[in-house]
Amino acid sequence: MLEFDGLHKAYGDNQVLKGVSFTVAPGQMFGFCGSNGAGKTTTMRIAMGLARPDAGEVRWQGRPVDDDVRRRIGYMPEERGLYPKMKVGEQLAYFARLHGMGGAAATRAAATWAERLGLGERRNDAVERLSLGNQQRVQLAAALVSEPDVLILDEPFSGLDPVGVDSLAAALLEQCRRGVPVVFSSHQLDLVERLCDAVGILARGSIVASGTVTELRSSAAGRQLRVVVPDASDGWADLLPGVRVVSYQRGDTVLELGFGADDQQVLAAALATGRVTHFAWREPTLVELFRDAVSTPSAVAA
């Protein structure tokens, strides 16, 4: 179990983290979401010993994360930490050796991960000759090459094309299958929703929502219905009791039903306006859940 327990961090008067706590189980993929400046990178830097918390600690298997533990963590910082004039294959082997692999094993692992992430033909190229997207792939390969026990990745999908996204997603799912806890931050919430077992949303230095996407949906403020009546005019649902109109778009209406609101009454009102071609409960997306969580000052972790 990877545990982030009560992390506090301030830079002068700026309170960056205010008691950040969450856990990531072995084999779980955890999406760490938040607006720019929310504290995601600071949290990850504390885990890697690059920043010191004012209070709290990070533990792996019940043990505080120290330098010995960090040698078994695959880490990808948001800013690139590569040697630009070093060849791709040599660089990956070098990072593998830094994490304790022997020379022959490091060379084999470098070749394997270069191939896995679409860099097989670029192994003898200097990093500075690669596109930014391919440099991102090298950075990811460097985090994976040592077969780590834990993965902590800061914006790993940034700059990748769809093929690169698919390659990385497959690699991370494979790591989870072998029991590795994976934490990654991302602004690409569609990817987080698709890949992650659990999600933590950080705002103003605090975790304001956490759990599976299903759990976050179940705790959302209201139930939503999508009703499509192609010939209906906007406003047909405005006076329904306990119903809030989320959006009208040319006969495609999204409604939020409060406690006690009757969906059958909504259906009857829709039928009274014309032919109903779609009537179904609608689950909020992670993007919508994120917006609600970060805009609610009183939000708390689930």
Task: Describe the structure in your own words.
With 302 residues, the protein is α/β, with parallel strands linked by helices. The protein is built from ten helices and 14 strands. It has helices spanning 40-47, 67-70, 88-98, 103-116, 132-144, 162-177, 189-195, 213-218, 263-273, 286-294; strands at 2-11, 14-24, 29-34, 55-60, 63-64, 73-76, 150-154, 182-185, 198-203, 206-211, 223-228, 243-249, 252-257, 278-282. The longest helix has 16 residues, at 162-177. It is elongated.
Give a quick rundown of the structure.
This protein has helices at 40-47, 67-70, 88-98, 103-116, 132-144, 162-177, 189-195, 213-218, 263-273, 286-294, and strands at 2-11, 14-24, 29-34, 55-60, 63-64, 73-76, 150-154, 182-185, 198-203, 206-211, 223-228, 243-249, 252-257, 278-282. The protein has 302 residues and is an alpha/beta fold. It starts with a strand and ends in an 8-residue tail after the last helix.
